[in-house]
């Protein structure tokens, strides 16, 4: 189990340390932005491969599994994960991960009233669902640490955005977009076109994950 722990810890360090503005800024100044982004992308890919290999080679130590009934947990929960990630990436968001950073003078999107970190919430939920379904020590290590990275990333993202936006602007936005507010879920039905684009992308992503899980991961995600 030690190789898996080491691989996951290195993965987390590689995604936590460069998140520091001082470290990231120093690397960009030394390497240049294009070289930094290319090197970081390559490093991330290599670390993903390392983690995947270490996970597959880890001995199976059952904790609350195997239980085929628990395979329903990710099957039923992953549509929510796909929605949070896809809709989060296409929603304008000055507070967290997205493909569309600026909100300008527009009203706070309904999705962000549910959570200002929809992508990170989705990744944390992905980890939790798979940890429950697998029920073994290796999965507890892998998905537990990955989920912790996603949850810890919310705090790190808040610090970075507060610094870049200014304390007053950040607080005004954060007051409208808490970390998690399930009472705002009904407002999603009044979302604009971008949210429904995210829903369509989430449906496609879910279908791809179901179809590619066994060929790529080696295990069928279906409980039958």
UniProtKB/TrEMBL annotation:
Coiled coil: none annotated. It is found in: Membrane. Residues 4-221 form the NnrU domain. The chain crosses the membrane at residues 35-55, 75-95, 115-133, 140-157, 194-212. GO terms for cellular component: membrane. The keyword Transmembrane applies. Pfam families: NnrU (PF07298). This is Putative membrane protein.
């Amino acid at each position: 189990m030690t190789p898996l722990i080491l691989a996951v810890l290195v993965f987390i360090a590689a995604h936590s340390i460069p998140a520091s503005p001082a470290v990231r800024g120093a690397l960009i100044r030394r390497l240049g932005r294009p070289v930094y982004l290319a090197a970081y992308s390559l490093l991330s890919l290599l670390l993903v491969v390392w983690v995947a290999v270490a996970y597959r080679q880890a001995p199976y130590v059952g904790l609350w599994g195997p239980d085929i009934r628990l395979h329903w947990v990710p099957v039923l929960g992953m549509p929510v994960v796909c929605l949070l990630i896809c809709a989060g990436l296409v929603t304008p968001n000055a507070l967290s991960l997205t493909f569309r950073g600026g909100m300008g003078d527009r009203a706070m999107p309904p999705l962000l009233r549910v959570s200002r970190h929809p992508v990170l919430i989705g990744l944390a939920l992905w980890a939790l669902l798979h940890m429950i379904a697998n029920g073994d020590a290796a999965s507890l290590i892998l998905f537990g640490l990955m989920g912790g990275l996603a949850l810890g990333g919310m705090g790190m993202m808040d610090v970075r955005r507060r610094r870049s936006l200014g304390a007053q602007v950040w607080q005004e936005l954060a007051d409208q977009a808490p970390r998690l507010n399930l009472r705002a879920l009904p407002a999603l039905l009044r979302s604009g076109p971008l949210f429904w684009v995210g829903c369509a992308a989430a449906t496609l992503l879910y279908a791809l994950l179901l179809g590619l899980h066994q060929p790529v991961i080696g295990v069928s995600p279906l409980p039958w």
